[in-house]
Structures are given as C-alpha cells and as structure tokens.
Amino acid sequence: MKIEKIKYRLLDIVLRILLFSILWLILTNGDPSSWLIGAPAILFAVIASTRLVSPVPLIWSEVPGFIAFFLIRSLAAGADVAYRVLHPLMPIAPDLVTYPLRIPPGLPQVFMANTVSLMPGTLSADLNQNILKVHILDKEKNFMTELESVERRVARMFGVSLQHEGRKQ
Prior knowledge:
Structural class: alpha+beta
Helix content: 55-70%
Number of strands: 5
Oligomer: single chain
C-alpha cells in the first residue's frame, strides 16, 4: 500500500512538472534560452503547488471527453455572445444568479468555477460554502441546465459523486 502511495505521489509530481513545462514553453514561444529562468521557476512552482494543492485523482479517460465538451460548448457560447453583441438591439438580459454546488469542496469546486468563467457569456463572481454566484448575459436562457452539465462533467473527471440534498446520487 505504501509503495502505491509513493508511486501516486511521484506520478503527481511528474505530471505537475510536465504541465508547468508546457505552460513555460507556451509563454516563451519555445525559446531555449528561457530555460535558464524557466527551470528554477518550474521547480519552485512544483514545490509550491504540492504544498498548497494536495494531489487530486483524475479519471484520465474522462479528460479528453471533458476537453471536447468544453471546446464545443465554448464555441457555441462564443457564437451566441458574438451574435448578441453584433445584433443592433443587443439582446442581453444580464443577471447574477446563485448556483448551489453539488460537487464536493476543494479542487473540484474551484475547477468548476474556473471552467464556468472560461465559457463565453458566464463569469464566476463568487464561490463560498458550496454556493457559486455566476454573472450571466441572458437570464432568459436555460443557464441552470448548462451549469448542471458542466458540474456533472467536472464530477466525472474528478471521480466524485454529486450531492443531492444531503445524500449521494
């Protein structure tokens, strides 16, 4: 059991190094001379992130589906926002809505809030005690179904159950 925990921890560190290295490559356009600063920065980021964010198991087989889901929803929502902005009457009905999260606290909730903020037409305004406040562009649209859909996908990717009125689904 202890060997499995060590393997899992090493895998987590390797994945963080890989993630931060990819981000560094993107930020520096792959400039080889940037690694003089990048290598120590990545090392510091890995150390800090392992201290601040404990490893969270992901269901890796769900990640490609989540990415596809996110891209499709983002493109559709982006087209909708563009239509509204370019329409002469600018048909928007903004609102700040409260969404009770069923996903467990911690990284899954933070990931959910950040995902909602990255989708056009929505912006996470506050995350506090299992309540996500979201600014939306059109209160007439079925935004709750969209938020529930994102939450289900995030829960599947993190391998967690959604809570429903105090009991598991």
